[in-house]
């Protein structure tokens, strides 16, 4: 009976403080990640998205993995400032060694103006090989997909996602990060089902 009332009070407290609930949920699911995971995660706001991105990548750095962050929603100087503050590391030194890689989505996925699946797949292969040659355990990537929708590349993004296996057979962990509004406004229910089928695990609420 005591445990029941405790759980009710905890639920009420978390309801009044939703940020604490989100932080707890993110922390719990990050504990489950392992090499080979090709994760799809859908976020309702930027704060939730980047809280998970920085926590996810910090853990990778601590586990001797090369970490990659691609986004257009946060300027590079703000990314470096946050890493410096929250991780307590020399971000410039780690970037110079290739242990941290920060790119805009455009720079990584379509530097020539349009997405190219073969080029992107070759890039991942090179990054994995380079990380292993340096004695790293692999790579950990947080890829923010928002820019694909802004540039009108929904079809190309969908084709790229379907080229990837639900579980990688190389030492990598990747989060494909989507904003909920992009999913709701640009994808059919069948496309959403296909995306879920092509990722493991799936971190998304009903869209």
Q: Concise description?
A:
The chain has helices at residues 2-16, 18-30, 46-62, 76-87, 91-96, 105-109, 117-133, 146-150, 154-163, 180-186, 189-197, and strands at 38-43, 66-70, 100-103, 139-144, 172-179, 202-203.
Overall residue-averaged pLDDT value: 90
How do the SSEs run, as a string of H and E? HHEHEHHEHHEHHEHHE
Helix content: 55-70%
Poorly predicted spans: 1-21
Q: Give the overall shape.
A: globular
What this model shows, in words?
By secondary structure, the protein is α/β, with parallel strands linked by helices. The chain has eleven helices and six strands. It has helices at 2-16, 18-30, 46-62, 76-87, 91-96, 105-109, 117-133, 146-150, 154-163, 180-186, 189-197, and strands spanning 38-43, 66-70, 100-103, 139-144, 172-179, 202-203. It has a six-stranded parallel beta sheet, with helices on both faces. The radius of gyration is 18 Å and the shape is globular.
Record the SSE blueprint.
Layout: H1 2-16, H2 18-30, E1 38-43, H3 46-62, E2 66-70, H4 76-87, H5 91-96, E3 100-103, H6 105-109, H7 117-133, E4 139-144, H8 146-150, H9 154-163, E5 172-179, H10 180-186, H11 189-197, E6 202-203
Parallel strand pairs: 1-5, 1-6, 2-3, 2-4, 4-5
Helix pairs in contact: 2-3
């Amino acid at each position: 009976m005591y445990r029941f009332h405790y759980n009710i009070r905890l639920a009420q407290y978390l309801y009044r403080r939703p940020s604490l609930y989100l932080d707890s949920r993110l922390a719990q699911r990050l504990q489950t990640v392992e090499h080979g995971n090709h994760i799809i995660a859908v976020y309702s706001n930027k704060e939730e998205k980047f809280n998970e991105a920085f926590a996810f990548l910090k853990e990778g750095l601590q586990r001797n993995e090369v970490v990659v962050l691609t986004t257009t929603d946060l300027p590079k100087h703000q990314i470096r400032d946050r890493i410096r503050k929250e991780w307590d590391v020399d971000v410039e030194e780690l970037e110079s060694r290739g242990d941290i890689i920060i790119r805009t989505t455009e720079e990584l996925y379509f530097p020539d103006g349009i997405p190219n699946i073969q080029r992107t797949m070759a890039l991942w292969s090179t990054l994995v090989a380079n990380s292993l040659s340096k004695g790293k355990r692999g790579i950990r990537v947080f890829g923010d997909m928002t820019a694909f929708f802004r540039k009108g590349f929904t079809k190309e993004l969908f084709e790229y996602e379907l080229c990837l296996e639900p579980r990688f057979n190389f030492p990598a962990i990747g989060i494909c990060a989507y904003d909920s509004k992009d999913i709701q406004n640009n994808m059919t229910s069948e496309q959403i089902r296909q995306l879920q089928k092509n990722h493991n695990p799936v971190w998304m609420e009903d869209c």
